[in-house]
Amino acid sequence: KILNQIHFIMAGNRTFTMIKPHAVADNHIGGITAMIEAAGFRIVAMKKTQLSAAQAGKFYEVHKERPFYGELCEMMSSGPIVPMILEKDNAVADFRALIGATNPANAEEGTIRKKYAKSMGENAIHGSDSDENAAIEGAFFFASIEQY
Ligand code: UDP
């Protein structure tokens, strides 16, 4: 019951993101985290790490039937990434608005993808699409002792 209450209090307040390899390689960690903080998100957890192709495959398992899955896993394991857990009211929806459309050609002015995405695949940043996935994806990278 207490766990349910904690879950209720936390629901909607956290999301998960990763700065993708091309954006890390191009020295945009600072620029992207500045946009995230300026938009009112608090960085709860953050690190620099690199996925193996198998780990990327596990992270993106929901997309395994999609035609771009192989390319996506290869791209996401091609260099270091910066995963983060972020906190703000209405975090998932507000962060999806901040990153912009998946295809940078459709990304709105002022969004992270408008500024930093290079293509549909190399679109600078990931953002969870639901509270449930935010919790699963955050736990994929961070232990509870790393979340402050
Ligand atoms: N992606 C791709 N080709 C596509 C669709 C998606 O390479 O046609 C990549 C892209 O990097 C995207 C990721 O796969 O960010 C996950 O796709 P999703 O549809 O979940 O988009 P997102 O939620 O990241 O906007």
TrEMBL record:
Nucleoside diphosphate kinase-like domain mapped to chain residues: 12-146
Classification via InterPro entries: NDK-like_dom, NDK-like_dom_sf, Nucleoside_diP_kinase
Record-linked PROSITE patterns: NDPK_LIKE
Active site: H126 (pros-phosphohistidine intermediate)
Extent of the signal sequence: none
Superkingdom to which the source organism belongs: Bacteria
UniProt keyword ATP-binding, yes or no: yes
Binding of ATP, residues: K20, F68, R96, T102, R113, N123
Keywords from the UniProt entry: ATP-binding, Kinase, Nucleotide-binding, Phosphoprotein, Transferase
Gene Ontology molecular function: any one: kinase activity
Sequence similarity: Belongs to the NDK family.
Protein name (Swiss-Prot/TrEMBL): Nucleoside diphosphate kinase
Organism: Emticicia oligotrophica (strain DSM 17448 / CIP 109782 / MTCC 6937 / GPTSA100-15)
